[in-house]
Every structure is written in C-alpha cells, then in structure tokens.
Amino acid sequence: MPTSSELCNLDQTGISLRKKYAIGAGIFGVLGLATLYALGASSLVRYVFAVGSIDLTLINWRQARNSFCVLNGFTGTTEADLKRTKLLNPMIAKLARREAIKEFAMVLGIALTVGLIALLPI
Known about the structure:
Helices cover 68% and strands 7% of the residues. It is mainly alpha-helical. It has a two-stranded antiparallel sheet with strand order 1-2.
C-alpha cells in the first residue's frame, strides 16, 4: 500500500506558484468583498463571491503546504517544472484520487461555512 509521502505530486516550482495564487486570491477576495459591500450588493451575491474566493485561497494554500495538487490527484498525474506526467502505479493514482476528493470536500465545506461572514450587514 502506498504511503502518504508518495502522494507528493508538486515540486518547488509548483509549490511556489500555488503560494502566489493563494496570496492573489486572498487579496482579490478581501478587496472584492469590500467593493461589493460598498456597492450595496445583495447578501446572496456577497456570499457566492466570498465562497469562491475563500475556496480558491484555501485550496491553493493547502496545496502549497501539503505539496499535493488536487487537480493532479484527480487526474492521476504528478508535476515537475509545471509539466504533468501520468502516475505509473495505479495504486498510487487511486490513493491520490481519494485524497483529492477528501481535500476538495474539506476545503469546500470550510468555504461554505466561513463564507457566511459575507451575510453580515454593515
């Protein structure tokens, strides 16, 4: 049975890129939500925007932290210098898919919950 260390499917280039994405998505999310409040957008619009930006920020941050790309996990690939290659071991590919589903579900659940902040009136 493959170990979790074999699920590392990102190199330093990919990790660095995911960190940049997380920071960018976080900044965009805060500024965008502030703008939506200033424009008087409805609670639903603010909530959908908040969930999307929280999800993007959190998933990229976790990918960088865990050296595990969810998309690579779903597709059974690994990434080196931003080039994807197919995993040769089907057991590792299956384990990576399972881990990607768990990671995606966890991040979406957190985003749906934390996004409730956007429903608060100012």
